[in-house]
Amino acid sequence: MSPDRYPSEAVDPAPLKQPLKFEFSGRVARNRLLKAATTERLASWSRNEPTFVGIPEEKLINVYRRWGQGGYGVIVSGNIMVADDHLEAPGNMIIPLGAVTKVGDRRFDGFSELANVAKREGSLFVGQLNHPGRQTKLELQPNPVSPSDIPLENTLGMSFGRPHAASLAEIAKITHQFVWSSEYLYEAGFDGVQLHAAHGYLLAAFLSKTTNNRTDQYGGSLLNRCRLILEIVQGIRQKVPSSFIISIKLNSVEFQEGGLTPEEARELCTILQDQAQIDFVELSGGTYQRLAWEHQRESSRLREAFFLEFAEMITPVLTRTKSYVTGGFQTAPAMINALKATDGIGIARAACQEFSFGRHLLDGRINSAIAQRLDHQNFMLTNVAAGTQIGQVGCDENPIDLSVPENVDCFLKDMKTWIQRLGEDKDMLMQGYVNMSSVAPAPYNDNLI
Q1: In a 3-state reduction of DSSP, which class is residue 74?
Q2: What is the pLDDT of residues 353-368, one digit of tens each?
Q3: Full set of structural domains in the chain with CATH
Q4: Closest by Cα among 442, 379, 447, 388 to 412
Q5: Which of 28, 54, 360, 371 has the fewest other C-beta atoms within 10 Å?
């Protein structure tokens, strides 16, 4: 039985099939769809063997093989950590300083195979690099680094240590970590990197006046607050060829008092275009303190995209750097309409429910995403659902169809058990998401239409 989908008129997907050239690197995406980054949490994990933590292994390889078959112009990998002492969560991929770029090394071979399977069908593969800063869980880092010593309130069931303001030596090390990781991914066969400067993580924290009250060259004016990013990009360019894509994920708005505004985001994009020659900007929004993966206005609900209205204020200044908007898209007509304001469309949740969503959409076999029977205003619920589906595909299973009410009931039941176990896991031994024990697994099949 075919899954339920969002209602949509049948349209010609031709506008979404147009290639997109990135001016500074000269690389060309075969279409306008970008598989946006997710945090899979499927890399190797151990509290006892830190040397073997954060390595892409079979489950992650399976996941990116399937996304590689999904028809996307660009695939952005999930959340690769540049510092092994600051993790977003257990199971993150990690590139420690000094990691060996040599065939036969377990970590390097894992990243190389990840690039191989993701690119095999023609997608460009970009590694998202991240440092979580003060958004590192207390159990993993009790004294996290941040632009300033402004604490993060415990939220989303997580506790955080009080951060310390980064010294100039620490800022230099952070710059080196991003540059090192970029060169590492180039050697592993990636087509580029995306600097994660959204959602309150370290680079975003430097950009926002709510988390950066420094009085030195890294604080104050917007140019000073983006200095770290500019220095990282400069360092990357000294290590890799000009054909290596350098991109960034930014908040278009933070939805909190004193946070980054669309006006500042527009000015920031101008700086990144003119001074850093960034290939593309992916626009998102929100922080841990003020989630934005929901429709803030009725107009955004009608147009599906969470951040499109803010993107319309920002993208006119981008004459050479390309733009993508990610978040909330459900139907082909809405995506095509959004191309009036942005160069490309970022897809995340729909690509976790249906890994070949992009290919099926561009082939005209479908016109919309599967309509999951979840509360889409509940970010944590939909995030855990997506992570659970990724984990299933990692095991070569079909992702659970959450348009089926009985499946939703099973998911919520197993999620309750997972949350209970998570609360008892004081040693942070668990990784990943919900183990779906209430539904019999089905072998992977990308013809779920």
Answers
A1: strand
A2: 999 999 999 999 999 9
A3: 14-377 (3.20.20.70)
A4: 388
A5: 28
